[in-house]
Design a protein that fits this description.
Length: 809
């Protein structure tokens, strides 16, 4: 195993789903799970293919209720490449003897190789080597090459290369009782050149899908026929093979949907494209080159054990959100394009992904924010329908930005369907506003800020100002009836209505958003100001109100710590040790308690970071400033006590939790930081949330761990037009380097080694970058470097940063 190569030896059916997810190949337009091409979907294998933004809505009968769900659609399976020897049965790892089985994911080239040595029931050995790619160069194309070599026999093999439209969305066991057939009107056919095609459409969203496959073999005497069955079409090749000689079959496929620009009909486009596709070697070359370009724009060098995992995380982030995404109208699917968990929905997880992308692929961030902007109107409708003002973004969304959060969810432990109130996590809008701001600071994209950005900030700010009600007794505004990032708590014990009051995370971030919205609106150039005010219907008095709310939102405290919400401190303490002893893994404490007939709402027990999210989003100085703005003093002691308090009361039932705790503890220079960072790194490779990775990656944790190096450890902030640093030492991560793209400067190098952080700005004709640290700033011109020398703080009270302009030119 190197940083670039992930090898899997042997075949273990129990691990197959996980492996398929981790070996998914994609290009931002579509992705296909790393399933064996000779296996159909069953209890072991799940060959899913998903195109970004392709959703369909179905109605199911759940526990006597009709429920509607929108799902990211599992598209026709293009993988099938079945093989049989003269023994006559199709070879499969589940039915035949495997003499060898090895799979290699090559991140550098973006390819998946698999070598299987089969023995048929009559003792014939056949080595099968497969290589696949989902082209990063030509996003509608994919390739599957197989090389076959008989050992000790000669004769004929039959290869069936199919497109299979009989698929359904059956990748997640918990959803088994829900309707799953999204494809209809499947038509198949073939052309004279031997290309087979399959067209279909999604049943309610009416998206047409076209696939075409060209299968060629390097044996001129091979015979080929086409077989059409119900919703499936195949090219069948009968190939003479000779002992010890390798033959090669190349299956090239093209995929189009009616969402694609510049096409007339997706099926015609797919047939045309596959007909024009270059040969396999040329496809492979172009694909590798495209990946090299991506790696250049996302340089990362972490020499310790975290390096390979971070590389894998980067690979999967880029396969989900690549430069091709910039041309699409899609959001950030929480589980990638890698599986069907959460139905391919978009949550707040972009909060953990965009800050990374902003500094490498800003055009992708811009497209993802534009996706949110296109759904701003819908978010305003949602707010109005609920009796609010401004924009209420949905907690979960799919195609059109309506709320897709289910009303009921299944507790697999108790088998009960329970009300789901997670839609009260309105803080998702705050994450969008935060991302708008971060994107604009990182890129200097004033055009976006002054137009779409300002509009989103204004409508989100308006929503929160409207949600705030004045409490005479407190002399402060309160926001009531919401759910915070810790979604365990969705109501007060025995309350009739769901929702909690004064969620500190929500209130503090709402204050920040209100203040930023005011900054932007007040600073708008005169020319655009009037237009925007007209469009949004803003009056100066409304802005004064926002200012007032942003300064007087209530933040509850108890026992000298910030309360997660009003009354958190009055909840019962949980017997953590008792539950750990009884259940071992208590990450999903909510399910355990519900199955016991209890509820997590009664306890001081959180699923994931909630208050501590504040330390993830804001640097200590910014957070202190924000509390001051709200009329509170947040000293270091209070923050440290708060960190300890929630550390003891969090079960980490989401992969985001270890990430945020790792980040916050690293910033606070705590010894436990590395444990959490390691856990965040292991989330998917070790499938820490108990079998969930097989249903898709955790994109937030993957993007977040990359950002932990980029912003978390360096303290990098793009604030006030400067690149600010405040590095913290993490002894286990004493050396790392990466490059960023900042305000039009490409390839700005950052390298930390022992106690030095060096920033190098490549030569160009652009203006110098202002580098800031503590209370000092230094301009670093293109072609120059600067080094920050870090010294121990606290003990001597000396400034932690000493600056030396060195002479690396
Ligand atoms: C987490 C949410 C997250 C969602 C999708 C849930 O388990 O609690 O914060 O947005 O997963 O990743």
């Amino acid at each position: 195993m190197s940083e670039w190569i992930w090898e899997y030896k042997g075949y273990d059916p129990a691990q197959e789903r996980l492996r398929e997810t981790l070996c998914t190949l994609g290009n931002g337009y579509f992705a296909t799970r790393g399933a064996a091409p000779e296996c159909a979907a069953d209890a072991v294998h799940y060959p899913g293919t998903y195109a970004a933004g392709i959703y369909n809505r179905l109605t199911s009968d759940v526990a006597g209720h009709w429920v509607e769900n929108e799902d990211m659609v599992n598209l026709p399976n293009w993988l099938p490449l079945w093989i049989r020897t003269p023994a006559g049965t199709w070879l499969s790892p589940d039915t035949h003897t495997l003499l060898d089985h090895e799979q290699t994911l090559d991140l550098h080239s973006g390819t998946l190789e698999r070598t299987v040595r089969y023995q048929d029931e009559e003792g014939r050995c056949l080595t099968v080597r497969q290589l696949r790619l989902v082209s990063m160069a030509e996003p509608h194309l994919a390739l599957l090459r197989i090389e076959l070599m008989p050992e000790g026999w000669s004769g004929q093999v039959e290869v069936e290369s199919a497109l299979d439209g009989t698929v359904a969305n059956t990748g997640v066991d918990r959803y088994r009782s829900l309707a799953s057939r999204h494809l209809t009107d499947v038509q198949t056919g073939s052309s004279e050149e031997g290309t087979v095609w399959l067209g279909c459409r999604t049943s309610t969203s009416g998206i047409r899908v076209g696939l075409a496959a060209r299968t060629v073999v390097d044996v001129p005497s091979a015979e080929a026929t086409t077989v059409e069955e119900r919703a499936r079409v195949a090219r069948v090749l009968r190939i003479p093979v000779t002992d010890g000689h390798t033959i090669t079959v190349d299956k090239t496929i093209a995929l189009h949907t009616s969402h694609d620009p510049a096409i007339s009909d997706p099926l015609c486009a797919a047939v045309d494209r596959v007909g024009r596709a270059r040969d396999a070697d040329a496809l492979l070359d172009a694909h590798r080159t495209a990946w090299q370009q991506l790696w250049r724009n996302a340089e990362l060098d972490v020499p310790n054990s975290a390096g390979p995992v971070l590389r894998l995380h980067l690979f999967h982030v880029l396969q989900t959100l690549s430069p091709h995404t910039a041309d699409l109208d899609v959001g950030v699917p929480a589980r990638g394009l890698h599986g069907e968990a959460y139905r391919g929905h978009v949550f707040w997880d972009e909060l953990f992904v965009l800050p990374y992308l902003n500094l490498h692929f800003p055009e992708v961030s811009r497209a993802l924010l534009a996706h949110r902007h296109r759904r701003l109107e819908r978010a305003c409708f949602a707010a109005a329908d609920a009796g609010h003002t401004g924009a209420m973004y949905p907690w979960q969304s799919g195609s059109d930005g309506r709320e897709e959060t289910q009303r009921l969810h299944l507790n697999p432990r108790s088998g009960r369907w329970l009300p789901d109130h997670s839609r009260l996590q309105h803080h998702v809008g705050l994450a969008i506003a935060y991302n708008v701001w971060q994107y604009c600071e990182a890129t200097g994209d004033m055009e976006f800020l002054h137009d779409k950005g300002a509009e989103m900030l204004a409508q989100i700010a308006r929503f929160w100002a409207g949600m705030a009600t004045y409490d005479e007794t407190l002399g402060r505004y309160r926001i009531r009836g919401v759910v915070g990032p810790d979604e365990y708590h969705d109501a007060y014990p025995d309350a009739e209505r769901p929702g909690l009051d004064d969620n500190a995370y929500t209130n503090v971030t709402a204050a920040w958003v209100l203040a930023r919205a005011l900054d932007v609106l007040r600073g708008l150039p005169e020319y655009v100001r009037g237009d925007l005010f007209d469009r949004v219907g803003l009056e100066p008095s409304e802005l004064n109100m926002w200012d007032d709310v942003s300064r007087t939102l209530h933040v509850p405290f108890h026992a000298g710590v910030i309360s997660q919400f009003a009354g958190y401190g009055d909840l019962a303490e949980l017997d953590w040790q008792g539950y750990r002893d009884q259940y071992g893994d208590i990450r999903r404490l909510d399910r355990i308690l519900e199955a016991e007939g209890d509820t997590v709402n009664r306890y001081q027990a959180s699923k994931q970071a909630d208050v501590l999210m504040l330390g993830y989003l804001f640097s200590p100085s910014e957070l202190q400033g924000l509390f001051r703005h709200l009329g509170y003093e947040l000293d270091d002691d209070t923050w440290h006590r708060t960190v300890d308090y929630y550390l003891d009361r969090t079960s980490h039932g989401s992969t985001l939790s270890s990430l945020v705790h790792g980040w916050v503890l690293a910033r606070a220079q705590r010894a436990q930081a590395w444990d959490f960072v390691q856990e965040a790194l292991a989330s998917d490779i070790a499938d820490l949330q108990g079998g969930t990775t097989g249903e898709g990656i955790h994109l937030g944790a993957m993007g977040g761990t990359l950002d932990l190096i980029q912003r978390g450890l360096t303290g990098l902030e793009t604030r006030g037009g400067a690149l600010r640093f405040d590095p913290v030492p993490l002894p286990e991560m004493s050396e790392y380097g990466f490059s960023i793209r900042y305000q039009g400067h490409w390839g700005v190098q950052l390298r930390l080694k022992s106690d030095q952080l060096r920033i190098t700005v490549p030569d160009s004709d652009r203006d110098p970058i202002t580098v800031a640290f503590a209370d000092r700033t230094v301009p670093v011109a293109p072609g120059e470097s600067c080094t920050l020398t870090l010294t121990e703080s606290g003990v001597t009270g000396e400034p932690r940063h000493q600056v030396t302009r060195d002479d690396f030119r």
